[in-house]
Amino acid sequence: MRQVIIIGSGPAGLTAALYAARANLSPLLIEGLESGGQLMLTTAVENYPGFRDGIMGPDLMAEMRAQAARFGTEFVTGDVTGVELTQPPFTVTTSDTAWRGRSLIIATGASARLLGLPSERALMGHGVSTCATCDGYFFRDKPIAVVGGGDSAMEEATFLTKFASHVTVVHRRDTLRASKIMQEKAFRNPKISFEWDAAVHDITDTGKGVVDGIVLRNLKTGALKSLAVEGVFVAIGHTPNTGLFKGQVELDANGYIVPRGGARTSAAGVFAAGDVQDHVYRQAITAAGSGCMAAIDAERYLESLPESDAAAEDAAAPSAVTS
Ligand code: NAP
Fold it and tell me: In terms of Cα–Cα distance, which of 86, 96, 76, 95 is closest to 5?
């Protein structure tokens, strides 16, 4: 029987593990086969406090993982295939093992939706980005493109005009999905122009792995057109990784876990941290902060349980059943 099981190994999960380990809760952290979360897709991170000269995203995650391990976090690698959260002890299943825990911290994050182009994947972190707040600063006085027509795309385009020489919004239709107020702000901005009915056909590079343009395809005429840009911000939405929890923890209309004060969720003993419950801030530092909150909330929850419950649960279940 585990005191705390954490699912997810981004900044939220690793910070939860660090705090839970230092509270002597011997956490078990299940990291997916693609561990480390969204920071593994970035290059330099310059806005994580404590790193004056910046740090590479994968290096930051390696540091966080080592710090959580130092205090006794046990790591298991494997994608979680099922959870049973009706009542504690909860069961978390990977391909070959069923783990049982008195409390659970969900830190499975969200995935930025991508266009699906091979060049987009190859140039991610080298001119292609999914986070304007994180990477806008690298594009001072450079022309860039933002893909998407929703609130995120308008917000990112407007924000990026602080740095870029020009921002071209590429949208697949001729009307925006964004709220009127965000649309009007973007229309009024002299540094923003629009390419309507356009899809990104390809992202081109100089041959040195640095973006130098995009090829647009007009979706009405099929015509191709090149645009010289040095950055491409893909802002076509995010998908929270909550499929496993549907029907067991309250989710909002977009699939995000609904917080119930602090890191609590609708299920007692189940806590959520990071982008899986936050579609607003989506930063490494806010994810880490909420991971800390989840560990403290889990610790307090465990302390509040009558000792008789814990003894009964211990007697009832082995901590892991391997098939
Ligand atoms: P969204 O509203 O789902 O918009 C996604 C945009 O990307 C749409 O314009 C969509 O085109 C386009 N798109 C989707 N898949 C595409 C693809 N494969 N290729 C090209 N374009 C594609 O997502 P979001 O903008 O991230 O917003 C998510 C939620 O957060 C919304 O409820 C939004 O209001 C909210 N939000 C609010 C604020 C704010 O108030 N400050 C800021 C950001 C987000 P179509 O329009 O053709 O479908």
Answer: 76
